[in-house]
Amino acid sequence: MAKNHKKNQKKNKGKIGKPNMFALPEETKKWIWGVLILILAAIVALSFFDLAGVAGKTIMEGLTFLIGKAVFIIPLIFVLGGLVFFKTRYDKFLGPAILGILILIIGVAGILEILDRGEKNGGLIGYIFSFPFLKLFGVLVSEIIFGAIILIGGLVFWHLISGPKIKKAEKGERSEKIVSSKEEKRPSLIEKIFAPQFKIKEVEPKIRETSSKLEESILELKEKPISQPIKAISGAYQFPPIELLEADKGKPTAGDTITNSAIIKKTLENFGLGVEMSEINIGPTVTQYALKPADGIKLSKITGLNNNLSLALASHPIRIEAPIPGKPLVGIEVPNKERCKVRLRELISNPVFQNSASTLTIVLGRDVSGAPCYADLARMPHLLVAGSTGTGKTIFLNSLIASLLYQNSPAILRFILIDPKRVEFSAYHELPHLLTPVIFDAQRSVNSLKWLTSEMERRFDVLSGNGSRDINSYNAKVSKEGGETLPYIVLIVDELADLMAAKGREMEAGVVRLAQMSRAVGIHLVLATQRPSVEVITGLIKANVTSRVTFQVASQVDSRTVLDMAGAEKLLGLGDMLFVSAEVAKPKRVQGAYVSEKEIRKVVDYIKSENPAPQIEEGILENHLAEELEKTLENESPGFEDFLAGEDLLYEEAKRTVLEAKKASASYLQRRLRIGYARAARLLDMLEEQGIVGPADGAKPREVYFKTDTNNPGNNGEKDEWQKV
């Protein structure tokens, strides 16, 4: 037994070692067969003119006997068969090709036999196949049947020549997007020596096929279901259909990922940094090459070679993520040769979005691996959007609004839109979700913040009286009792810089006041600006709006202003952004969802046509509140500071302290009231505006005034006035 086993091993070894002369690539075999069939078509065509010799004459006689005059289309059918071998994108096509040839021959021979009955123009085959149909259905129906047979044969050839690629062919042409499979051919010795050692991670861009890995990469959403206890508007609200949005088109092209991986590894090794290439993630905008540094290598050395890698890859700009969150890897993000748009439709139809517990879930886009990304506005709870002109801020705001419109009726959510540029939000005119028409000027914007502050305080009183902690618990209690519920209110500002230039102090005071307290009562802010400077995004605004979306900016300074770190200056524009929040501390690169103005108008027009002028029930949003908002917007008050002047609990005490001491300064108020300088200075400004203290005069102390009383007998009935102490 052992001897026989050894003999078999030797025989097998010898067989494996011998090269196979006919081991040609499958593509070459297909082309050879295609050429042979085209030659056969040429022989048949030449036999029509007696130019193919004796063999051609014999072939002509045989075919004429079998199919009659249909022999004259044989060259055309053979040409189609040859094209199948050259153009097909299927692996198993021989059977369908032969079937298509037979169908065409039978169809043509049969219809020729039916048209000239008795002449045998269809040959033996035409007579055999047409005779039963003529007896059963007659001439007209038989012509229709054989005409359909010819059409079916043509469709078979058309499908074979222009049909889609199956998986194996797709793997052959898109090697940069596919994992090296075990079923592939055994690598040669040269490939073993020179091929880089890494894995390519396969990315499935179709969001309908959700997996556990994909769901893990999506930003965390609430898992516990939250009931939506808002009362419905009279009549059923019609949500816009998903068909109003356009579907995804095209695929990204990453280039030669094999070569790029080898270049990255070699470049780092040239600087003494040993790395092991890992996976490759192909996204809509960039391709991320993940690598694992050798032990003892500082990440700062890798990030310092950004320009060297950009030069070696002939690609700019390159962003290095060190490390990738949740992985012991470093990611090098290289721009794709061809980008693809991320459409809003596919992201909204995703089951993760459809099944999210919160109705304030917004669409962000797709990350560097092509996985969908979402965020919950209720958990942010406010959002700051920054980026240079033309980088995608307004499109992001439109996709944010659209994603909310697909989840909420006017009973659940209302908008206040501020558009200083007057053209960005024009598509939302007369949208039922709007509390007021789109606001354009700065004074009305400040007044809207005043109204929101008043509404916030009113809601706190309502929640306090009900014993509820936030708007969700309040609505849950009230809905069970059949009482009044409160909708969410989202304020969206398209250009904060313009408003800060016109009404800087008032806007900052209003934004900070709302950002600090409005989350619990369902009021959320979305602030966008194209000038991310410290004059616009002040320290107080940054401290209270922690969730930020940053598109491409002009410099590293602007990036640090928004994100407190560099990186946004290396983005590619056109929706390429970095997202950071309290839950995602490290910036996450996302290609923002694209929605065109045409799509937005379709959605808004559908909502307006199917849900005309909303009849809002009392309790959902009382009509007098909207009227108060309109009155507030028309009010020309001096500023937000006066609106909040009496709200500082220490104002009266500061006033009494200054009048008793007959002197006023910020340092004095700091010592007496035990407060910080900023609050003391603000109190001093309030006292000055009320006429209690005089203006600052350099290093000299401020003048203090006291108020005379008309009821004082010594005042001789004069009016009240402030007099210098």
UniProtKB/TrEMBL annotation:
> For the FtsK domain, which residue ranges apply?
370-560
* Keywords, ordered alphabetically: ATP-binding, DNA-binding, Membrane, Nucleotide-binding, Transmembrane, Transmembrane helix
Q: Which PROSITE patterns does the UniProt entry name for this protein?
A: FTSK (PS50901)
Q: Where does ATP bind?
A: G387, S388, T389, G390, T391, G392, K393, T394
A Pfam family for this UniProt protein?
FtsK_gamma
Organism domain of life: Bacteria
In alphabetical order, the GO MF annotations are: ATP binding; DNA binding
Any stretches that span the bilayer, and where are they? 31-51, 63-87, 93-115, 136-161
Region feature (Disordered): 703-725
SMART domains attached to this UniProt entry: AAA, Ftsk_gamma
PANTHER family in alphabetical order: DNA TRANSLOCASE FTSK, SPORULATION PROTEIN RELATED
Family recorded in the similarity comment: Belongs to the FtsK/SpoIIIE/SftA family.
The protein's name is FtsK domain-containing protein
* Species the sequence originates in: Candidatus Nealsonbacteria bacterium RBG_13_42_11
